Structures are given as structure tokens and as C-alpha cells.
Amino acid sequence: MVVKIIDAHVHLLPDNFNSRMRIWLERRLGVTIPLRMDAPSTYLLLREMGVEYIFNLTHAIEPGNTEPLNRWQASLKERYGNIVAFGAFHPETDASNLYDIFRDFDLDGLKLHPGVQRFHPDSRRALEIYDVLEDLDKPLLIHSGHFIDSGYKYTHPHYYESLVESYSFPVILAHSCYEYFTYLEKFLDIRSNIYADCSLVMIKEEIISSTLGRSVKYYPPSKEIFENFQDRILYGSETPITWWDPTITMKNVLGLNVDEHVKRKILYENARRFMEKYCSETLFG
User: Fold this and answer.
1) Pairing between β-strand 83-87 and β-strand 171-174 as defined by DSSP bridges
2) What is the dihedral of CA 257, 259, 261, 265, to 10 degrees?
3) Which helix (H) or strand (E) holds 5?
4) CATH code for the part of the protein at 5-276
């Protein structure tokens, strides 16, 4: 099988953000992040792995991060030409600022991380952001499921019901609502422009969650989910902030007990259609 890849979950970050995230993860999990690479080196690694386009994700840990991270995204788009830029925004900022942010930085979508940014996805601040995305018809990629620093305090799937049920703009549920795949099935069934990326869930790893007081196992959704929603599952690797070999996710997708055409959809075709439908036309020259 000739593998063409679009990676829908990558973190090419400025050096100061990259090192901050790596140090935090290593201390929090007691692991070593093997990829001590800057953004250009990580980009080259992904290209060597066969990645054609990159969904690059940034999220504003603090309100003041929004502008520098979005300038960074704009610079990556200009430099490489194959970056699908999901920009940064902090929920403490007035949501109306998003109109200018999308215009000024040519963003393809928005990235939110309720666990890091400490807000509930059904809060008033979140709904105000969704209202703007609805008006602009811009995609949202949002962390879903367990988060190592807060368990499910902000990211239990039931907080996402308003987002899925009350809006029509496209949404990518990062990490597929793990460990709650029954919610994932429910959300994917509600409307046809809900997607999920398979970052983290394909690595078959286990960590101890001090927040939950138990282990958390990263494991794939059922074969039925991959088959029933084969047009809306996207490959994502989480590179470079991984404590596992960055090729593991791809290898495990290729090893799924599903037809080869389903694997091609996950690795490339679904993301390509998503880009053509929802993202900047400049991506295709």
C-alpha cells in the first residue's frame, strides 16, 4: 500500500512555547519527550514520514499568547505553503475579536483546549466563541476526552453536547473523546460535519492519572466506529510532543483490521476533502 498522509494533529510551535510544553509534560508524567526538535526540524521529519499537509495547532495558554501565536501561524503558512493553520484564542478575550483575527492572519480554523485554558465547552464564554465561528462558518478543532492535568473536569464529553447539537460549523474532536467512545459515536451520528482525529488513541499506551487516581489506557475505538464513520476519522500524530515513537500512530492505523480503502481515507482522503470544503483556497495554489 502506497501511503499518502495528511497529519491533522501537529504542534509546530515557537521555541519558547515548544520547550515550555515539553518540560511541563516531562514533569507531569515523569516521561522523556524524545523529539527535542525545533519547528523546522520537526517539519522536515514529518515530510520524511510522507506527510503532504499539516494541520498545525496552537492554543493560547494565556490571553497574551493569542497575537504572537497567530503571527507565527501566518508565517508558517507563508514559508511552507502546506500548513492548515488552526489559530490561537483565549476564552477570556472578547469573542468579537475573532472577526479581525481570522481576517488579519488568514487562519483556516480555531484550536481550543478546555483543559489547558480551564473553561467548560458549554460555558457562556465558549458559546460566544461558537457564535462567531457559526457566523464565519470556520472550523473548530477542540480537545476532547481525558486530559492529564485535570482528568474530565473540563473535558467530559457531556460538556460538548451544546457544541454538537446547537451549531452547524465543522468541528474536529481531537483525541476522539477518549475514553468515552459511546459519546463519539453519538456526536458523529448527530451531524455530518463532526469529525474526530485519532491522535493519542492509536498509541496503545497507559499512564497513571493522579487526578483520577487510576490508570488511563490509550486504545483505539472499535472497528465498527472506523467502518461506520470511515469518512470522518482523521489521522493525527501529536508530533513533536510525544513520549512515544512518532511513527507509532501511522503504523497502528495501517495495522487496523479494516479494508485498505478505509485506511486511505483515515490517513489522507478525509482530511483532503475537509481542506477542500472548509479551508483556505491558497492551500491548493
Assistant:
1) unpaired
2) -30
3) strand 5-10
4) 3.20.20.140
